[in-house]
Amino acid sequence: MGVMSKPHSFLAASGLASAASAIIPIEIAAIATSAGSANGGKYAAVVFVLVSSATAISTPFIPLWAQRWGYSRVLREAMSLRSALFVCIGLAAIIGDFDYLMIFIASPLIGVLIAIRMSCTPLLGRAILSPDSPVMWSRRQMVRAPAAALGAVIGGLLVSSEAISGFGLMLGGLMSIPLALVAASTNADHITPPVMNRRRYNLCTELKAMWGQVPIRVGCCIAVVGSFVLTPLHTMIVPILAELDRDRLWQGAGLILASLQLGSMGTKFVLNKLRRIRQVSNGQIATGAMAISGALMFFFTVATSSRLGSLELVMWILISGGVALFRGVVNATQVGVFIDDANKTEDANGIAALNFIRTTSTTIALLVWGVLIDEVGSEFLLAGAGLLAVAAGAILMPMIRRSTIATTE
Fold it and tell me: Per residue in 106-138, pLDDT tens?
């Protein structure tokens, strides 16, 4: 079966994997928050920082593995191991009382598996769906967003009952199997074919070469700022809502998480509209979308401080959808910057560079968020993060605009 005859299978498998990726962190966060009691934010941050650290450290090695064995095979093995790992941890959590300890121990391996999935799945998507990276990303998001939203709702329901703690981890593990099967049955290694004696990939050399391009410099800044102000929101939403001590918000955590996923379904529509504007670049779109996301994050604080009563949950859900929409635009165009706009850079190397920057920044950001949730409170944290995103957008936009004008001239 040819590569291009499998788009529906790939989208379905990618959707299931995304649902699993929503269920698993919710259960991990709930277990960590419960284990930490009053310091739930710090306990959750410790696990997620370990995972993110392992992801950042292992990301530069992904191109080497892809060069040696082909990224389809690497993805297949990683997703198979991910399935087995979470099924085992889930079973052990149901049987015993050491769920947090087991998650803590498995955190580095979880991070490595995430690095492989982050780097290899987009490459498989470019081979199956579209060679245009933003288009590929937005097509995937049309399926991934509702799947992840459904996973968030399921995860929220599962963590509300301590009697079935661990079941979400098992379910997430089983839902990872279809993507492994698609990778195993797809011969799409012509983008990054297995080569035994290829020149050794060096991330530092690659980043140094890419840094000479203005769009890449701006892209790196957007990746860092986005990792600090946007990415932790999804991961740390459970301790954020717990710190706010609002019953209706806590009860609606699953709905808020679902909105954070569903909002990105509009990415394809917004991206198509923006790309019709003459001479607009991926970097310009990413910068503007990040600033808008930051402005919306600031309104989380406004909604909470205004004491809207029963409307508070509604406002959080609506704002979450808006943040997710524009964060989706940022992510789609970021992939385009590091793959489509980067000169003389192979696809796998561009993805590895972007993922390394993101995961390294996210590691630090999660630690900062975990501490600030307990020390300064969720309201001040969300307001500060939103203002930082707006300020970064205002600074970076003139740089990327001048670069675009110079290029067209």
Answer: 889 999 999 898 888 888 887 787 777 777 877
Q: How many CB atoms lie within 10 A of CB 370?
A: 27
Domain residues for the domain of 28 are 3-408
Q: CA 174, CA 16: separation in Å to the nearest integer?
A: 9
Q: What is the pLDDT of residues 143-176, one digit of tens each?
A: 887 887 788 778 877 776 655 667 888 888 999 8
Cβ(110)–Cβ(190) under 8 Å?
no
Dist. CA 297–CA 282, nearest whole Å: 22
Angle, helices 237-244/378-408, rounded to nearest 10 degrees: 140
Count the domains in the chain.
Answer: 1
Domain with 368 in it: what CATH number? Answer: 1.20.1250.20
Which residues, other chains included, contact 75 with Cβ-Cβ below 8 Å and sequence gap of 6+? 116, 117, 120, 121, 124, 179, 180, 183
Q: How many whole angstroms separate alpha carbon 347 and alpha carbon 350?
A: 5
At 48, list the tokens: 């997620």
User: What ranges in 306-377 are assigned the alpha helix state H?
Assistant: 311-339, 347-375
**pTM, entire model:** 0.71
Largest CA distance in the chain: 66
Instruction: Please give the Cα distance from 121 to 182 (Å, whole number).
Output: 11
Instruction: Compute the distance between CA of residue 289 and CA of residue 301 in angstroms, rounded to an integer.
Output: 20
Cα(254)–Cα(156) distance, integer angstroms: 5
Output the CA–CA distances (angstroms, integers) from residue 17 to 102, 144, 152, 179, 290, in the order listed: 22, 8, 13, 7, 26
Q: Which helix (H) or strand (E) holds 240?
A: helix 237-244
